[in-house]
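Slack export, channel: ligand-projects

TW: morning all. Re-posting the request from yesterday since it got buried. We need the structure predicted with the small molecule present, not the apo form. The ligand is pyridoxal-5'-phosphate; the SMILES is in the block with the sequence. No rush, but it would help planning for next week.
GE: picking it up
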Amino acid sequence: MGSIGFDKTVLDPTLLFSKRVQQYEPGAIRSLLPLEALPGMISLVAGKPNPETFPFTEISISLKGSDGHMIVLEEDQLSEALQYGLPGGNPELIKWFEELQRRVHGIGDHDGWACCIGNGSQELIHRVFQVFTDLGDPVLIETPAYPGVAGFLRADGHQLIEVRSDAEGLNPIDLEHILSTWSGKRRPRVLYTIPTGSNPTGQSCTEPRKAQILRLARQFNFMIFEDDAYGFLDFEHPSCRARSYLALESEVNGETGRVLRFDSLSKIVSSGMRLGILTGPLPAVQKVIRITENINLQPSSTTQMMALTLFNHWGHAGFLQHCERAAEFYRQRRDAFAAAAERYLQGRATWELPSAGMFFWLTLLLPPGRDSFEVLSRQGRENGILAIPGVAFLPNQRTSCQLRVSYSLLPEKQMAEACRRIAKLVDNAWRFEILM
Ligand SMILES: Cc1ncc(COP(=O)(O)O)c(C=O)c1O
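GE: finished. pasting the full token output, ligand included:
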């Protein structure tokens, strides 16, 4: 560990790096690109296409609710937007996010961190796993778990260690038990968790629990991957929200550098633009950038430029106001779905009210021995209802009575009917039981 500033320690994350990430060498072309900007330099480096051959003359964007205000990419911005860019992302956009992270998470300038951009947070999560794990390594994963991550971990042969979560988020007692009774040869170096409005449970981790988990991370020497894809859709009043792992780590542990945080623009600006942000210790961010330059070169210049122009127009305050409006939109949906569930699902399912995000996690009260996968596959189609059975969120693929229900797109007037159809699935399962 190195020391920066007065009494704060900055963890050296390279001690936990994987073997496989060491094999990536700097991209021969991309490592020279920053030098092109030096005054007087004649660059014959990159095989960049000549933008004169591109068919676009303008990109203009009109914004909702702004009296027809248009954002127009001017000539310089347009040529940058249509051209290859740097593997870590557009430097101005990175700066914008770094400033946002200072504001939102209160992190200091001297804590050895940086941001980079990816084609969605999913790509960045996958890359950071490559930085810290070798194929087959054990990984601690909050369960129920997001299948988008469990899926690639399983395919890479990782040992998935389920750490349970409940209405207060990831359970530190379960985590401590797993770590203190660990008998495997290799110890887990990574905990993957979704702290706000988890996919699939909709529950958030409390601040006291986050503090306990951070202490365990220090004691047992692992990194925390904080996937906060729903962090901007928190229904709590801003003054009551739990601070992030990134915000808390210095206060709790007197060190920084153990948290890698993933933010996503997918749920608040556009999922099709594919923009995600990684914030974490500089050496780890540099390794992610190295993987990018070797694999898919860079995140999209075009959508980064669209985002940058929008954010420069909004400013940080405007961006955060937009997120508050989006959170309020989903909070109203959650309340409407909760009212429909109260009406039709009482006695047929149990649930906790989601505190953020887009999902209800229902436990169907099915006859013993029945599970939600089987009930849905037998009767879901016939009853006109689709939802995701719990088994999809259990990394080790046990059957379960749970169901993930997304209320993000469902018009309020269809919520009652959706709940009525779920109720029918449960009633039919019992009827079938009696007929047997
Ligand atoms: C928990 C979680 N993490 C990450 C992602 C991927 O987000 P992105 O669109 O930024 O890649 C999703 C998408 O649904 C998600 O639910």
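GE: first-pass observations. The pocket of pyridoxal-5'-phosphate is lined by residues 120-122, 146, 148, 194, 199, 227, 229, 264, 266, 271, 276 (CB under 6 Å). The first strand starts at residue 2 and ends at 4.
TW: perfect, thank you
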